[in-house]
């Protein structure tokens, strides 16, 4: 029997597998496209997460419902992206699910849902993870800022939970390093150094995404 978490099984068929088209339909408001994506790739995502994070997953009781809701939540709140194929889509979504399970995303999840504090990105802010297809053209400085923010938000979902939380505490909450240190149980200078390292990892993750590396 083929292992649904086997990377070889996820390789796209020659000529494309419809992933990019389904994502474009979903971004245009087609709920059926979202349903097709989830139904198609949920078995692979479920097997992969169970394989890597079984103990953490079991803490959520009905894992079937939890994982399904987690994937829907990711596609609703993560910046819009286009993936060239099924493999890229699966790996991206699975990695965000794993980070959510491992860190619970306490700070970021709350802020991401508070539309008054984290403004939704414009509808045309769609990140293309396919380097060969990306044109790299932007019509204005405003569009450049929107795109940069979208890359940063997507990268935040992919870095380690402890890095994400210290960035969110500092950048979104505006907390002083002394307060961050007290919250994390570390000295102020350690909190400052942790933030600097986290920013470096966030920058590296943005650059990896721009190169199509997930």
Descriptive keywords:
single chain; 214 residues; mainly alpha; two-stranded parallel sheet; disordered N terminus
Explain this structure to me?
Helices cover 64% and strands 2% of the residues. With 214 residues, the protein is mainly alpha-helical. The chain has a two-stranded parallel ribbon. It is globular. The model is unreliable at 1-15 (pLDDT under 50).
Summarize the structure.
Helices cover 64% and strands 2% of the residues. With 214 residues, it is mostly helical.
Helix content: 55-70%
Spatial gap, N to C terminus: 27 Å
Shape summary: globular
Strand count, sense and closure of the main sheet? 2 strands, parallel
Radius of gyration: 18 Å
Number of DSSP-assigned strands: 2
Question: In which order are the strands of the major sheet placed?
Answer: 1-2
Number of helices: 9
Q: Could you tell me the mean pLDDT?
A: 82
Weakly predicted, low-confidence segments:
1-15
- Report the structural category: mainly alpha
Q: What is the string of helix and strand elements? A: HHHEHHEHHHH
Q: In percent terms, what proportion of residues is strand?
A: under 5%
């Amino acid at each position: 029997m083929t292992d649904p978490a086997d990377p070889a099984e996820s390789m796209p068929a020659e000529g494309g597998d419809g992933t990019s088209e389904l994502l474009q339909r979903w971004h245009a408001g087609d709920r059926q496209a979202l349903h097709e994506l989830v139904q198609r790739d949920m078995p692979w995502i479920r097997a992969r997460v169970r394989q890597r994070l079984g103990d953490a997953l079991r803490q959520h009781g009905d894992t079937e419902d939890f994982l399904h809701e987690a994937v829907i939540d990711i596609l609703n709140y993560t910046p819009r992206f286009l993936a060239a194929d099924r493999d890229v889509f699966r790996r991206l979504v699975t990695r965000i699910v794993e980070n959510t399970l491992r860190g619970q995303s306490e700070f970021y999840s709350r802020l991401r849902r508070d539309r008054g504090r984290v403004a939704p990105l414009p509808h045309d802010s769609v990140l293309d993870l396919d380097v060969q297809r990306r044109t790299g053209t932007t019509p204005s400085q405003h569009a450049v800022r929107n795109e940069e923010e979208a890359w940063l938000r997507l990268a935040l979902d992919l870095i380690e939970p402890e890095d994400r939380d210290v960035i969110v505490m500092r950048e979104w909450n505006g907390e002083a390093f002394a307060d961050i240190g007290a919250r994390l149980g570390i000295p102020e200078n350690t909190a400052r150094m942790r933030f600097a390292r986290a920013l470096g990892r966030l920058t590296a993750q943005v650059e990896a995404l721009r190169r199509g590396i997930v």
